[in-house]
From TrEMBL, chain A:
Family in the record: Belongs to the MON1/SAND family.
Biased amino acid composition, Pro residues: 14-26
Positions of region (Disordered): 1-42, 71-104, 452-485
Protein name: Vacuolar fusion protein MON1
Domain FUZ/MON1/HPS1 third Longin: 548-659
FUZ/MON1/HPS1 second Longin domain: residues covered: 376-515
Keyword vocabulary terms for this entry: Autophagy, Endosome, Membrane, Protein transport, Transport, Vacuole
From TrEMBL, chain B:
InterPro entries documented for this protein: P-loop_NTPase (IPR027417), Small_GTP-bd (IPR005225), Small_GTPase (IPR001806)
GO molecular function annotations of the record: GTP binding; GTPase activity
Subcellular location: Cell membrane
Keyword Cell membrane: yes
Protein name, entry field: Ras family-domain-containing protein
The family this protein is said to belong to: Belongs to the small GTPase superfamily. Rab family.
Annotated region (Disordered), positions in chain: 191-216
Organism encoding this protein: Lasiosphaeria ovina
NCBIfam families xref list: small_GTP (TIGR00231)
Pfam family, one: Ras
Length: 670, 216
């Protein structure tokens, strides 16, 4: 799948792991108990942990300090009331998973060992080691600066070794600006100001150069087509340089695939008459950048089709492609931005589905199939960016990259949602057929949300809606006759009907109306809304007591993935968090960068890795690939390998047990 | 039958008519903004380009007894969608051709659309010419590229309704659609533009440009 053809392989960005854990046995399909990572028995793990705490606390922590800090055991609830954001999450995680209800001995180190025996082996995760940290004093000062200064330095020292340290917690405390890789990421998506009296060109150029990620598309004749940042006037000369460099290698029959300049990686894709260039300082691998460029190219094909694109340049190689692509810049930019923010879907080349009971999905599929129009090719129901239902002809399946283009158009860019109407869109799905257009009917569910509302006489599904509409009183000359229920973005449910017939709009509209009516009547719509509202499950809900903070699980056969809730401050979520939106964005990217590194290491040419465990300053992580699934997870930096693998096992078992809820297997076929 | 106004819901003598309206014009002149103002009474200055076409409906009351429902096709203005335009105007009862009063070239494009409509569309089609973005010239008259007189004399010559509008301030938007509704033949069959007519949209689609397999 990976298109990496470059000769210099991606530098290993991970710390070289300790000798990898034993190879996991290949779990047989559909065996929920199968697939256990080679893992020391819980007893062994405990033994190791207990050794860790042999050394008593050597820092000068008075017993009073200890008790006010409620260290070490149990009563972390106390912290959650006194400490600021960094500990609240740890505290609540503790409470949800494995906190003991009886905390009788505050400040005593003794109960630790007793505590170990409280429950199953996973409880040992709350153990802490008391070895003093090696952090230099200067660093410590910054740790306790600002709002954090209510915590004593000693506490910080001790805590840095704790198993309850969340991934990236230390780097979050130090602030985003000091984590070099993501410095400046908060302004990554800001527009470069237009040329004006107050902004000199040098300043604009400096802003442009400060961006961590660039995408450029140009024709082989050197005409600029698209640049993510900066107007083409600003970057025109750079486009010229890029064209000169690429053409030089093209002329030598030795295409340039990529190069590194400073800390920026350049990856080049040549697609017929187009040159696509990705420039990244975010540490992605060549293969990852190449697949991003491929998606941008697919977006162009989706607008034009391959024969049109080729014809344009056959007849006039110097054509300015911006005109034919007019209006789709926002689609390219929203794709580019989702790659820059870090999209699990793009990384894994897979789609996310809405988690539903099998019977619920079945009844949605059936309603969808039963009301199918003759002219339908594909039918999709999508809620909050997640797939709910697919119906398709037996001999065709939908390619994830095509679906990603559709999702991008519907959810990431505002063009369609903002209109508020029904849409009829000619588009090419390049993985399905890059030579012709299909016609896509799109509408977002609105007024069906209130089935009892006046004007919804739904007893005859085929009846046109206007038959039941009440006339508007003459006193209000202007009034909309469509429901306008304001819906939050993640609440949006869209129905997408694709046909090869450009004249089939009204038939598909009729089908949509009857499907909408049927789903409202049999309660499916409410079920979908509820599923969207409840969001992704947290790790604690999936496998209580597991010390993993976040995971991605990809079902390779279904080309779909699921992931844990991102709803915690370390990953840019959490509604109660005081963090600004820019620091949330940085936090999200930090997590996604880690996943990108894991993914790149696992998929590096010739690596043939099955399991990879990495420990870093900020987080421990694990990747595990079998023929059935790909699994990636992140845990706090002090979580042992044994505990991470144990947690991974539990989550993988859950995912395989829930397979038919998490993923659409086959979809409705006609 | 179904396309009639709700029978019995209103007293005798009430009229309900339904018409198909298409918006045409160069890209970025504000077609979608005019529709959004008309249908939802909203305005969004950072609207992204329409992709393909959008279908919306809006009902207005002309007087105590007359209700007119518009089925609106808001088309994308980009050149690459031009070949699809006949599909949208073929059975249209009325059309709004929009230009941007601050862009001289957009009136030329509008004139080309008018010509095409007069040649290809329904022969009784009511066409309105709308010069949009009036709000831009109220503060800075220098921005205007097309004078009211110039556009109006062209509209008269070509037999078009004419308004200068602002989707942003809502100026003349409702007036535009009301004027169109008043010109439409309300006394004819109320089925005009209704479902019966839609059927003619579909059948002649034996060969589409789609390269995919048949719709199975």
């Amino acid at each position: 799948m990976d298109m990496d053809t470059d000769t210099d392989s991606a530098p290993p960005t991970m710390q070289t792991p300790p000798p990898p854990p034993p190879l996991p046995p290949r779990p047989p399909r559909r065996s929920p108990s199968g697939g256990s990572l080679g893992l020391a028995s819980p007893g062994d793990a405990l033994g190791n942990l207990l050794q860790l705490q042999v050394a008593p606390a050597t820092t000068a922590v008075s017993s009073i300090d200890i008790s006010t800090l409620s260290f070490p055991d149990g009563s972390r609830g106390t912290f959650s009331r006194t400490a600021s954001r960094t500990t609240t999450r740890a505290a609540s995680a503790t409470a949800s998973g494995y906190a003991t209800p009886t905390h009788d001995t505050l400040g005593a180190l003794g109960p630790l060992s007793a505590r170990v025996n409280l429950a199953d082996g996973s409880d040992s995760m709350s153990l802490m080691s008391f070895a003093p940290t090696l952090r230099p004093p200067g660093d410590l000062a910054s740790l306790v600066a600002g709002e954090l200064n209510r915590k004593s330095p000693a506490w910080m020292l001790l805590r840095s070794q704790s198993a309850t340290v969340q991934p990236f917690e230390t780097s979050v405390e130090r602030g985003p600006s000091t984590t070099s890789a993501l410095a400046g990421f908060e302004s990554e998506f800001d527009d470069i100001p237009d040329r004006s009296a107050v902004t000199a060109d040098e300043d604009r150029l400096a802003l442009w150069k400060a961006k961590l990620k660039h995408y450029m598309i140009l024709s082989s004749a050197g005409k600029p087509i698209y640049s993510r940042h900066g107007d083409l006037g600003l970057v025109n000369s750079y486009m010229g340089i890029v064209q000169t460099i690429i053409s030089f290698y093209e002329g030598a029959q030795n295409p340039l695939l990529g190069f590194t300049a400073g800390n920026a990686r350049f990856v080049i894709a040549t697609e017929g008459p187009l040159y696509l260039v990705a420039i990244s300082r975010l540490g992605e691998s060549d293969a990852q950048l190449r697949s991003q460029l491929d998606a941008l190219y697919m977006q162009i094909l989706s607008t034009l089709t391959l024969p049109t694109l080729q014809n344009i340049f056959v007849h006039r190689p110097s054509t300015d492609l911006r005109k034919p692509l007019e209006g789709t810049e926002s689609l390219l930019s929203s794709l580019a931005d989702s790659f820059t923010r870090g999209s699990p879907s793009a990384l894994l080349g897979a789609l996310e589905c809405l988690r539903l009971r099998k019977s619920q999905r079945h009844s949605i599929n059936n309603a969808f199939l039963k009301l199918r129009s003759d002219r339908l090719l594909y039918g999709l129901i999508v809620a909050g960016g997640k797939l709910v239902s697919v119906i398709r002809p037996r001999k065709h399946s939908l390619h994830p990259s095509d679906l990603q283009l559709i999702f991008n158009m519907l959810f990431a860019s505002g063009g369609i949602k903002a209109g508020g109407g029904e849409n009829w869109i000619p588009l090419c799905l390049p993985a399905f057929n890059n030579r012709g257009y299909l016609y896509m009917y799109v509408s977002f569910f609105g007024d069906e949300s209130s089935p009892g509302s006046p004007g919804s006489a739904r007893n005859k599904p085929a009846a046109p809606r206007e038959a039941a509409e009440q006339p508007h009183p003459p006193s209000s000359p202007l009034s909309s006759d469509e429901g306008q229920a304001e819906q939050a973005e993640e609440d949006e449910i869209a129905i997408i009907l694709i046909s090869t017939d450009k004249e089939s709009f009204f038939e598909l509209k009729e089908m949509r109306d009857s499907v909408a009516h049927q789903l409202a009547k049999n309660g499916s719509l409410a079920i979908i809304k509820e599923a969207v509202r409840s969001g992704r499950p947290s790790v604690a809900a999936i496998a209580p007591g597991v010390q993993i903070s976040h995971f991605l699980y990809k079902s390779r056969a279904n080309v779909q993935f699921c992931m844990a809730s991102l709803d915690q401050p370390a990953f840019g979520g959490g509604s109660g968090s005081i963090a600004s939106s820019s620091s949330k964005m940085v936090a999200r990217r930090r997590l996604m960068s880690l996943y990108h590194e894991l993914h790149a290491s696992m998929h590096a040419k010739h690596s043939h890795l099955k399991v990879l465990h990495c420990v870093g300053d900020a987080a421990a992580s694990l990747a595990w690939i079998t023929p059935v699934f790909e699994f990636y997870c992140v845990a706090g930096p002090n979580i042992s390998r044994a505990l991470v693998t144990q947690g991974a096992n539990k989550i993988v078992q859950w995912a395989r047990r829930e397979e038919e809820r998490l993923f659409i297997i086959g979809g409705g076929v006609f | 039958m179904a396309a009639r106004g709700p029978p019995g819901a209103r007293g005798m003598g009430n009229r309900f008519a339904q018409f198909k309206l298409v918006l045409l014009g160069e890209s970025a002149v504000g077609k979608s903004s005019i529709v959004l103002r008309f249908v939802k009474d909203q305005f969004d200055s950072y609207r992204e380009s329409t992709i393909g076409a959008a279908f919306l409906t809006q009902t207005i009351s002309l007087d105590e007894t007359t209700t007119v429902k518009f089925e609106i096709w808001d088309t994308a203005g980009q050149e690459r969608y031009k070949s699809l335009a006949p599909m949208y105007y073929r059975n249209a009862n009325c059309a709004v051709v929009v230009y941007d009063i601050t862009q001289a070239s957009s009136l030329d494009k509008a004139k080309a659309w008018v010509k095409e409509l007069q040649r290809q569309a329904n022969e009784n089609i009511i066409i309105a010419l709308a010069g949009n973005k009036l709000d831009l010239v109220t503060d800075e008259p220098d921005k205007r590229a097309i004078t009211t007189e110039e556009a109006e004399s062209y509209a008269n010559e070509a037999g078009l309704l004419f308004f200068e509008t602002s989707a942003k301030t809502a100026e003349n938007v409702a007036e535009l659609f009301t004027a169109i509704a008043k010109r439409l033949p309300l006394d004819q069959s109320p089925r005009l533009g209704g479902r019966g007519e839609r059927v003619t949209l579909a059948p002649e689609s034996a060969n589409t440009e789609a390269g995919g397999p048949c719709a199975c």
